[in-house]
CpaF family protein
Amino acid sequence: MITDMTDDSPHTGDITSLPIFDTTPRPDEPGNPARHAARRSPREILSAFPTSTTPPPPPVPVEAPPTTPLLPPTVETLHAAQPAAPAHDNGPGFGWDMVRIFRIRAAERLSTQITNADKLTDAQRRARGHQIIQDLVNEDASERTLRGEPSLSIEDREAFAKAVYDALFGLGRLQPYIDDDDVENVEVYGADQVVVERSNGRLDFMPPAADSVAELNEFLQFLATRGGARERSFSEASPELHLNLHGGYRMAAVGWISHTTVITIRRHRLVDIDLDDLVQRDTLTPDMARFLIAAVKAKRSVLVAGGQGFGKTTLIRALANAIDPLEKLGTIETEYELLLHKMPERHRRIIAWEARPGSGERQADGSRAGEVTLDQLVFGALRQNLDRMIVGEVRGKEVLPMFKAMQSGAGSLSTTHAHSARAAIERLVTCAMEAGSHVTEEFAYRQIAEHIDIIVHLNRRDVRTADGTYRRRYIDEIVAVEPGEHGRPALTDVFTDNGGGQVTRGAIPPQWIDDLIEHGYDPTGFQAGARA
């Protein structure tokens, strides 16, 4: 089913106008001054919520609740509505309309309990919110008992409380997929279906995560404005949304300019990882790992290339974890993805920068209000006395900030999309020329030849089997880059892998040998044509 975006999509970019924050009492709801006197604005309510997708604390035992009514008799019972298309099994006795009602109740009560002066951590806020949700569910159950109405079982009550918690602090109906360690990617196609990709490459087709595209857009607008200092927007004026969610998830969403709203959530499954770990995962051979570790320690600049989902970011993390913990690092990214600053035991001196897309209409110079570009971040980073600067993924003209980072000092790391090591060079040239006519092809080639030392290319092989899919991500090329004739890069194959486990050594540039030996690599027996 193709959903009509014109009919279903909301036409407001202001999250405070969304119905999930409508705190106006309904005509059939008895007035209660105690409930409404202390309410704060929706933005103040949002400021109390962390962006964490961490699972809630252990459930609080269901106790005998107070007898003060929470919901008036006119509100539908929890048994009244079944989920129209649940994304997961959270009990047979409640529907998503009631999850929404209780989320609003919990938001209101939390806002009255947490003042601006409270200095609560995210974990403390989540714990407070979890207790409030349990109280609301227990109070409602007690009221129904007094009225002689049926209520949920204890098991269903706990499942319902978790669904409310996920809607308030997590990713709502998608949260169970995020909690599953075997899930690598989640794709949402409007109100039609959810596709879950497992770590072995298997695809599972699941029910929709929303009853309409309008509901899905509201969900995304809620997530966008929940980001605190990194608040984003999602609207017809800003139809693309990129977020890094707490817990190691990267979300990209698009609406209005696509046939329906589409969400892709990628999970950073391997964060605290090193090259030895990747050897165990058959990503590279021990000899390749020893070579790359020595190259990183010798401050050779490395570019990692490969397709989407091939493990480029994971490899960059592993390479970065070979850097001396006392070196001062700077990471510059469009969205936090490397997460090196989350590992203080590996990187004791680190500054992580994240670009800001800005908001509103574009100004005369093409920028948006509040926008901070990668180029601006690199300029500021040059004043921080860094030992190394790492620029994340290069997808376009941000290659120029990468060149600047490489000019400022050796040992940079970066990634790009390309189907081979040699194609990565052409990709960078194309990206550089996107910056404008002032960047010539000769300039781009010269920058690559002078500032990139090694290109590592990742490949992926999926083998379909009767019981699922075996997925192998592996390094199939390690290439040395040196300045050649007319300023063009000259390439030397150091390692190649045919994909069947047969790795061939090529050659190491002679002028690198002493440096690599000094940093722990033994090139004995490393001759052209030798087997690794």
About this structure: The two ends are 52 Å apart (CA to CA). Residues 1-92, 528-532 have pLDDT under 50 and may be disordered. DSSP finds 16 helices and 16 strands in the chain.
